[in-house]
Amino acid sequence: MASSSSIDLSGSTYCVLTGASQGIGRAIAVEVSKLLGPNSLMLLLARNKQELAKTASLCESDNVKVLFESVDLSRAANKEMKGVLENSLQRRNVTDFALNLIFHNVGSLGNLAVETSRMEDVEELREYYDLNVFKVISLNTQFLKIFQDVEDRVVIVNVTSLCAIKPMGGMAFYCSGKAAREMYFRVLAEEKKHVRVLNYSPGPVETAMIDYVLAEAVNDNLRDVFTTFKNQGTLLKPEMTAKKCMKVLQSGKFTPGEHVDYFDDE
Ligand SMILES: NC(=O)c1ccc[n+]([C@@H]2O[C@H](COP(=O)([O-])OP(=O)(O)OC[C@H]3O[C@@H](n4cnc5c(N)ncnc54)[C@H](OP(=O)(O)O)[C@@H]3O)[C@@H](O)[C@H]2O)c1
């Protein structure tokens, strides 16, 4: 597949999405499910089973069978991740699908109550990096192993952030984690020319994450920025950014591992 060719989601597609229980993940699940062709299969991952079930019910259709699994993605071992993926495929062969798609959407903000110059709790940092970087990499590796014989049908979307490329005071956990995660996917794209890799940055979106910033942040500028976003009504709705993500993905107009932002051509 050429790096600029469009991506056709209308065939039989296998799609994995992390962080699917709410927010942007739920919205992406809903939007992608509308585009998938007959005999498609979706696997939704997060911890909250009830909310996953709600997302699944929004995605299920004649074309799309939806499975979900409650997994703590900060702790799952490689074997567990591989098992979850393999079980979801049931008796389907990896060559059955025209496209094998994974959205790495899971994410958290980390400790917003510690000043960057006072960060020293390595265990806390490690836990943050486990969920947001290390386990994202290991899940991606399990996915690639399963589909290694049909790599040219693999498409990977990493949900990144402006914070991966622009420092934001008060968010050292988040910015450094997003930067590391994005760079991993860029390096992967550099090596795996047949795999399509997109780093999609959704813009500021009205989700639980924003409320967490307002509740926890000690950095005045950070609180001001997000308070202004909220008060001026400039936050995007999850559906808006999910639709844009689909547009970018389907157009295929991104270079390997490119960081594409919601606002890039708005
Ligand atoms: N909101 C924004 O303005 C914004 C801007 C730029 C980028 N982003 C990125 O977009 C992505 C989604 O953000 P969001 O705003 O939709 O956040 P959110 O509402 O907080 O959702 C986070 C998702 O991650 C899941 N999750 C968290 N910890 C988990 C764990 N240990 N194991 C498994 N799943 C876990 C949550 O599900 P459970 O709690 O059920 O496990 C939830 O589904 C993130 O990568 C974020 O960095 C967001």
What does this structure look like?
The model has no long low-confidence stretch (mean pLDDT 96). 44% of the residues lie in helices and 16% in strands. The protein has a single domain (13-204, 239-261), classed as 3-Layer(aba) Sandwich (Rossmann fold). It is α/β, with parallel strands linked by helices and 266 residues long. It has a seven-stranded parallel sheet, with helices on both faces. The protein binds NADP nicotinamide-adenine-dinucleotide phosphate. Its main location: cytoplasm.
In short:
This protein is an alpha/beta fold and 266 residues long. It has 8 helices and 7 strands.
Keywords:
globular, alpha/beta, NADP, binds NADP nicotinamide-adenine-dinucleotide phosphate, 7-stranded parallel sheet, Rossmann fold
